[in-house]
Design brief:
Blueprint lengths: L1 H5 L4 H32 L4 H10 L2 H22 L7 H28 L11 H26 L4 H18 L1 H16 L7 E4 L4 E8 L3 E5 L5 E5 L17 E9 L4 H17 L10 E7 L4 E9 L4 H21 L20 H7 L1
Antiparallel strand pairs: 1-2, 2-3, 3-4, 5-7, 6-7
Helix pairs in contact: 2-3, 2-4, 3-5, 4-5, 5-6, 9-10
Length: 362
């Protein structure tokens, strides 16, 4: 018999070879199985199955090799009695914890990406909220894994938590501003007064620009002159923030004056301007629309225009506003009137005696 020829003291070599070969075959079959799962998951619009399958490889391959090699090492250790093989079980347990943590982090990251992808979501979730939840989930996974690993290595979790409570109190006093910024960022994520890409400004501070990044400590805003502005998140708990990006409409509010000598045409001008605005395709007729004579100014008869455009885009808004103001100017000129400009008239009640002769001699 071949086995008797090899000898009982060499059977562990054959057993180890068989275990390693079986591990390689298992990894090969697992790779093919994950590929088939990936093709099947691509046919669905569910973000969860795609994230799960994408997270399997390579952690599943590493897990198979980890179990196979540690099993082979254990078999060799029991046959040879070498002390180094006594580390097989701890290595297997620690490796299992690390591989599962790796898989969970990959799964969380894939879900975060899929929830913002229109391919999976007909209405993608808010990017800022998804990023915040993704960060919280990943931090929770890392903390849980660290506690499990410490428990396995013989450290008392209760002692660690108690020490963390006392130490956290000391750190809280020492890092008051850091914690204020952290909770300020958390409030921004939860309340969502603005998101990445929004145009924001504050009437309380000289803050205005486009939000580029919302971190746990700082928010980066790109001002309109392209300077980066870094704002601690705790500031947002103390100031009012406007978000013009979420406006429903933009307002046109202009006062226009005509000459006093054109008072007879003022009523017709106001009527025609209002009709023009009501028919203008870029003016939202469902919002407030007012065109009325407003006041007797020192040099003009003033009427005002108050309306809202359909667009909120800054450049497009000014193009519409220009078109409307030019059209108002044509309406005024069409009625034979003109826009007023500041003038002064000097009235001399009585000409002094001899004033004409003085001028003539001049």
């Amino acid at each position: 018999m071949i086995l008797s020829w090899i000898g009982d003291n060499r059977l562990w070599i054959v057993a180890t070879f068989i275990i390693v070969l079986g591990t390689a075959l298992g990894a090969w079959f697992c790779t093919g199985f994950v590929r088939r799962l990936h093709r099947r998951a691509e046919k669905t619009a569910n973000p969860w199955d795609d994230a799960l399958v994408a997270a399997l490889n390579p952690p599943a391959m590493v897990l198979i090799w980890l179990l196979g090699l540690t099993l082979a090492a254990g078999r060799a250790g029991s046959a040879t009695g070498a002390e180094i093989f006594s580390l097989v079980v701890p290595v297997r347990q620690i490796g299992l914890i690390l591989v599962l943590t790796w898989f969970a982090l990959r799964f969380a990251r894939n879900v975060e990406a899929n929830l913002r992808n229109p391919q999976y979501m007909s209405k993608p979730m808010d990017a800022t909220t998804v990023r915040a939840m993704g960060k919280l989930v990943r931090v929770s996974i890392l903390i849980t894994s660290a506690l499990v690993l410490m428990q396995y290595l013989g450290y008392s979790i209760s002692g660690v938590l108690a020490f963390g409570g006392i130490g956290g109190l000391a750190v809280g006093f020492a890092a008051k501003d850091l914690l204020a910024n952290f909770f300020g960022g958390l409030m921004v994520y939860l309340d969502r007064p603005f998101a990445v890409g929004d145009w924001v400004r504050s009437p309380d501070k000289e803050i205005e620009g486009t939000v580029e990044d919302i971190g746990w400590r700082l928010t980066r805003i790109r001002t309109f002159d392209k300077r980066p502005l870094y704002i601690p998140n705790s500031v947002f708990n103390q100031i009012a923030v406007e978000n013009p990006s979420r406006m429903l409409n933009r307002r046109i509010f202009e006062t226009i004056g005509v000459r006093y000598e054109d008072a007879g045409q003022l009523s017709a001008i106001v009527t025609d301007v209002k009709a023009m605005l009501q028919e203008h395709p870029e003016i939202d007729s469902n919002q407030t629309l007012i065109v009325n004579f407003n006041s007797f100014a020192p040099s003009s008869l003033d009427f005002f225009i108050y309306c809202f455009t359909r667009t909120t885009e800054w450049v497009r808004f000014h193009e519409i506003k220009q078109d409307i103001l030019l059209t108002v100017l044509r309406i005024i000129e069409g009625h034979g009137a003109s826009c007023a400009f500041p003038t002064s008239t000097v009235h001399i009640a009585e000409v002094p005696e001899g004033f004409g002769e003085t001028i003539a001699k001049g």
